[in-house]
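## retry 2 of 3
previous attempt timed out at serialization; input unchanged, resubmitting
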Amino acid sequence: MARKRFIAGATCPACGAQDRVYVLVNDDDQLISRHCVDCAFEEQVESMEENRPTDAVVQEWTPVRLTGLSNKPPASSGESSD
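## retry succeeded, writing output
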């Protein structure tokens, strides 16, 4: 039996509605198709595979440590320093 899963942040390629796209997955969590609840858009897995980019670029990155940051809250401008 297929289950309906909404995709957060997804935009419908047909009508442009955001957060209205869901996918149908089977019992093995394999994608069957995607649909839009606002319009009649429907796309099967076979056509999605054909439109997938073949040259995916994975960029390497290194995390950086930010220095010079203080954990103290900023002084309010209304206080006088005696």
